[in-house]
Amino acid sequence: MTPAPRHPALSATDPDLAALVGAEERLQAETLRMIPSENYVSSAVLEASGTVLQNKYSEGYPGRRYYEGQQVIDQVERLAVDRAKALFGVEHANVQPYSGSPANLAVYLAFAEPGDTIMGMALPMGGHLTHGWSVSATGRWFRGVQYGVRQDTGLIDFDAVRELALKERPKLIFCGGTALPRTIDFAAFGEIAQESGALLVADVSHIAGLIAGGAHPSPVPYADVISTTTHKTLRGPRGAMLLSREEHAKALDKAVFPGLQGGPHNQTTAGIAVALHEAARPSFREYAHAVVANARALADELLARGFDLVSGGTDNHLVLIDLTPKEVPGKIAAKALDRAGIVVNYNTVPYDTRKPFDPSGIRVGTPSLTSRGLTTAHMATVADWIDRAVRAAAEGDEPTLTTIRTEVATLMSTYPAPGLPA
Fold first, then answer.
1. Which of 4, 99, 100, 150 is the most buried (most CB within 10 A)?
2. Is 57 a catalytic residue?
């Protein structure tokens, strides 16, 4: 008997799109997903994100809408807000930003004027585009000054950060980024921001789940504003939140709406509410600590196989690998790993001599594989696959990549992914 389609209405209406969704489900099920910014959401988050809340337009905020018929929507958003405030221990939360970059733009709109000096980590050093990098609107509309990491250690030099802040007197200082494998010292950034007269913005998009689970220190005592996506380690839908002290609530809310966007995506708000509910459970705390334990175990195994890791290891969910000693460019290695069923992304490393679209490194992470139940006991196998695949990439050995892909699929079949067909 032919099994019923997983998405019957979609299959009947648009079989082409349904087939693509099915193909993506199989791809996510069969491969080892190691991009640090990706994860698996639960079936509950998926369901909440696909409800009739999609049908509502809700410009404004709970109790202050421009459209009628918001009796239920107001409760949904208040539920998400209350859960965010409780989980992170903040005075104010806005769950309406569409994604991380718009959330950061709202911070600029709330606290800066075009041409103001803002300070953030340079993109090639591990920062984010929206922290004032030149190719971003934030680097064109504002005067961006950047700090980095030491070339000898791969760690932030806080003496240099302080010197730059006191010299430039930025309106905002961003801390956090996309390729930082070490614990962020929010207290040190807070002292520098206070001394230089800047507002401190902690972009914790990558580590929000680790913070919620107690596996990374919280920026709440030190940062004026916290910006985060709701996916990645938090395991929610693709959305964002702005968290802050109450004194900044009005400016941030006004910047999000009507400053940057219209009505919120209510179905996403619902998914965020579910993810925050899940993140408040003891099992999520165990998950967050397991993510870090897996990353550290993986780093140790990679070091044992002769890989050069930026900063020498990791404190969080990601490992940044400089493949220069392996004589394989990051892009070639990433594509070879993809053919081997191991999904990573090529990435610049600090002081990279190669171009951003063809860099020297790859970035790997453990959130997704931890969601599937893999433990530190599996990290030697994962490191061995990466090692064999990188060597195969250097030698043009496609049969080895095919063999690894079969081995990966076999292991993945015994560790079903949350939210995917059994």
1. 100
2. yes
Radius of gyration of the chain (CA): 22
267 and 315 co-located in one domain: no
Please identify which of the residues 232, 296, 363, 388 carries the catalytic annotation.
232
229: annotated active-site residue:
yes
- Domain C-terminal end among 227, 255, 279: 279
Catalytic residue among 143, 150, 238, 339: 238
Q: Which of 57, 98, 351, 415 is catalytic?
A: 57
Q: Can you give the pTM of this predicted structure?
A: 0.96
CA 36 – CA 39 distance, rounded (Å): 8
| Torsion sign across C-alpha atoms 315, 101, 238, 71 | positive
61 is catalytic: no
Task: Exactly one of 77, 203, 224, 253 is catalytic; name it.
Answer: 203
42 found inside a domain: no
Give the mean model confidence (pLDDT) for residues 297-306.
98
On whether the CB atoms of residues 386 and 337 are closer than 8 A, the answer is: yes
Active site residue 238: yes
Question: Is 129 part of a structural domain of the chain?
Answer: yes
Phi and psi (nearest 5°) for 133? -70, 150
Nearest CA to 280 among 235, 326, 325?
A: 235
**Structural domain span for residue 247:** 48-279
CATH number, residue 354: 3.90.1150.10
Percentage of the chain lying above the pLDDT 90 cut: 98
Residues 288 and 406 in one domain: yes
Task: Provide the pLDDT confidence category of residue 76 given band limits of 50, 70 and 90.
Answer: very high
Tell me, yes or no, if 254 is annotated catalytic: no
Binding residues for (6S)-5,6,7,8-tetrahydrofolate: 123, 127-129, 246
Number of domains in the chain: 2
- Binding positions: 123, 127-129, 246
Instruction: Name every residue whose Cβ is closer than 8 Å to that of residue 253 and which is 6 or more positions away in sequence.
Output: 61, 94
Residues 349 and 390 occupy one common structural domain: yes
Work out the angle between the directed axes of helices 398-413 and 379-395 (0-180°, nearest 10): 160
What is the rounded distance in angstroms from the CA atom of residue 98 to the CA atom of residue 76? 16
